[in-house]
Amino acid sequence: MATSPDVDEPTREYPPVPEDRKPSGFARLLIFVGFVFALIVLACLGLRAINVLPTFDNPFEDKTVDRSQPVLLQSMRDLNRYVAADGTFQVIVDLQQDKENVPDFLINRRTLFLGSGSVEAYVDFGALAGDALKIDEEKKSIELTLPPPEQSTAALDMAKSYVVAEERGALTAIGDAFRNDPNQQQRVYQLAQERITQAARDSGLDQRAKENTQRMLESLFARLGYTTVTVTFANP
Question: Which is more confident, 36 or 147?
Answer without folding.
Answer: 147
